[in-house]
Amino acid sequence: MLKTNLLTALFILCSVASFAHDFFYAGESKRLRMFIVKGDSVTWSYEYTEGKGEISDAMLMNDGNILVAHQYGIFEMNQQKQILWKYAAPEGTEIHTIQPIGSKHVVFVQNGHPAKVIVMEVPSLRIVRDFEIPTNEKGSVHGQFRNARLTQRGTLLVANMSQGFIAEYTANGQEVDRWTGMLPWSVEEMAKGGIFITGRKGLLQEINRQGQTVWQMNVASLGITQPQKAFRLKNGNIIVNNWYNDWNKTPMDTLNAPVQAVEIGKEGNIVWRLCAWGQNGLPDLGPSTTLQLLDQPVNRG
Q1: Does residue 144 surpass a pLDDT of 70?
Q2: What is the pTM assigned to this prediction?
Q3: What span, in angstroms and rounded, lies between the C-alpha atoms of 98 and 66?
């Protein structure tokens, strides 16, 4: 009964016309769009029309600039909508995740045969370091990697989607740890060193460095059927996005539109939900992959 009531409530309350947070937003869809939302309105938006692909990773940094990985390349732009630099993924490769290292470098995973972690100087686009990481040896590169994040000690956590594990690498490419038995989409280190994982089957999970589960929750029962990223707020609540496949052959049922993100309280209750598809006075934000609160910009040093 609880599952049914929660799911019903999600769709009924999607009509609430307000935002509980100020946030930066982007998502994998046919249109490469990004938004900044303050109060109950969009204060900034941009659509990247120069390239193809889908926005798999995007982040607002503390200098106001935005880093974007869109499957077939990466770029940095300012809020005046100027592209400061861009890098095209080589033929046969894809890039779905990116993060700054200070003000002059970025790190990203390049899906391919072989797959690589690459550190690049920007805006010169000079590759200063790269190393290969394990993945499927044959077949499509599309499903290899979606997310990687730096840790407090300068290592890189990589969600190996194709092989079902999280790995941690030093700057020289040495694998220092591996956690198996999962279907990871995204991963990040938490403030006290734990590892927060968003799984493809709706499982949110926090593990310690020994691989022991500290906390977990299956959000499929809350109507979150395709989570890609999730993060914990300072008050302990969790925000998790819910991606919608823009390439579905059947058009979306706008009367039963899926939520784009949900904030979950400590007791598992739904604190806030985002459902902005151009209905009920709200803007159309499109499918959800990245939702980043404006008071939590990514530090580029």
Answers
A1: yes
A2: 0.92
A3: 11
